[in-house]
């Protein structure tokens, strides 16, 4: 009597129910005591821990007194594109992947967006361990309006590109939040004072939650002068939104400044004049005359 072996069934296609889980975990931005309690459990139970800096991860786990239970891989700007498919395959295969960056929430000006997008594309569930955020912490302590805000991340390094980016949001009513490097903060604040106006209020938040935490508040011109003496540490800048237009309070110089800001952002002069006139509730001719007068004054001065 012969026996026949039935062919093995084909593997079922991956579904959201059988796929793994991507966990984005917030890490302390300064004080390790701010680590969310759930972070320790996720570090111990994840199949794979993808870390922006494995050395910093080691210091964090030592401080928390936990041991990583799974495999640790690096996941930073230099290898993010190449490593994402590998991690996405692991997720689709059922792995629990924990993503941590050096500080704060992954994908917020840090590695993570590509992996989240890849997980979503494969119908893999994505969740998060809420944790410290430099953006929200700076907003909360800035003393500026926080009911509406927008996060602009890091500005371009080149002066021309930085000024153009600032010009794009010069009339933004919401509070603005930026990250900046200490060796560029003086130039950035000076550019902000020039584009947004010297009197626009701002707060420079340095070393948040760390031993030498400092929040410097004041008009942009004053903050730029302060920063010129040298600033160190991790920096988040919060800038007050543009004020509501007040035709009675806009002199010719302010009208010209607003037109120039729009021109630097790429608008043609005719369009910039029309937009500024509409914002100020003034006839286009009045704004046009102010621009022409300023141009003639510059020629005469030259």
Average pLDDT across residues? 90
Separation of the first and last Cα atoms = 108 Å
What's the main sheet like?
A: 5 strands, parallel
Shape: elongated
User: Low-confidence runs (pLDDT<50, min 5 residues)?
Assistant: 1-17
Question: How large a portion of the residues is in β-strands, by DSSP E?
Answer: 15-25%
Question: What is the helix fraction of residues, given as a range?
Answer: 40-55%
State the helix count: 11
Encode the helix/strand succession as letters. Answer: EHEHEHEHEHEHEHEEHEHHH
Structural class: alpha/beta
Count of distinct strands: 10
What integer value in Å does the Rg equal? 26 Å
Strand arrangement within the widest β-sheet reads 3-2-4-1-5
Task: Provide an overview of this structure.
The protein has eleven helices and ten strands. The chain has 302 residues and is of the alpha/beta class. Helix 6 crosses helix 7, helix 7 packs antiparallel against helix 8 and helix 10 packs across helix 11. The termini are far apart.
Write the layout of secondary structure elements.
Blueprint: E1 21-25, H1 37-45, E2 48-51, H2 54-64, E3 71-74, H3 80-92, E4 96-100, H4 113-121, E5 125-129, H5 134-142, E6 149-154, H6 159-168, E7 175-180, H7 185-196, E8 201-206, E9 214-219, H8 220-227, E10 235-239, H9 252-264, H10 269-280, H11 284-301
Parallel strand pairs: 1-4, 1-5, 2-3, 2-4, 6-7
Antiparallel strand pairs: 7-10, 8-9, 8-10
């Amino acid at each position: 009597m012969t026996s026949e072996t039935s062919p093995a069934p084909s593997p079922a296609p991956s579904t959201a129910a059988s796929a793994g889980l991507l966990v984005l975990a917030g890490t302390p931005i300064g004080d390790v005591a701010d680590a969310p309690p759930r972070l320790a459990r996720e570090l111990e139970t994840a199949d794979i821990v993808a870390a922006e800096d494995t050395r910093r991860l080691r210091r964090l786990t030592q401080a928390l007194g936990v041991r990583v239970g799974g495999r640790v891989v690096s996941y930073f700007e230099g290898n993010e594109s190449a490593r994402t498919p590998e991690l996405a395959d692991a997720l689709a295969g059922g792995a629990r992947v924990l993503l941590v960056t050096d500080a704060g929430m992954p994908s917020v000006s840090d590695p993570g967006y590509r992996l989240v997008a890849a997980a979503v594309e494969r119908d893999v569930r994505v969740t998060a361990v809420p944790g410290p955020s430099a953006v929200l912490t700076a907003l909360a302590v800035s003393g500026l309006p926080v009911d509406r805000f927008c996060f602009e991340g890091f500005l371009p390094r080149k002066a021309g590109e930085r000024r153009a980016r600032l010009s794009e949001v010069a009339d933004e009513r919401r509070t603005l939040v930026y990250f900046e490097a200490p060796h560029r903060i003086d130039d950035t604040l000076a550019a902000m004072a020039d584009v947004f106006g010297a009197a626009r209020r701002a707060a420079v938040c340095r070393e948040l939650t760390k031993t030498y935490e400092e929040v410097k508040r004041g008009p942009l011109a004053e903050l730029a002068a302060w920063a010129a003496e040298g600033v160190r540490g991790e920096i988040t800048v919060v800038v007050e939104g543009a004020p509501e237009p007040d035709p009675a309070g806009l002199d010719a110089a302010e009208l010209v400044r607003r037109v120039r800001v729009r021109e630097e952002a790429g608008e043609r002069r005719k369009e910039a004049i029309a937009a500024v006139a509409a914002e100020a509730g003034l006839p286009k001719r009045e704004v046009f005359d102010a621009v022409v007068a300023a141009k003639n004054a510059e020629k005469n001065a030259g």
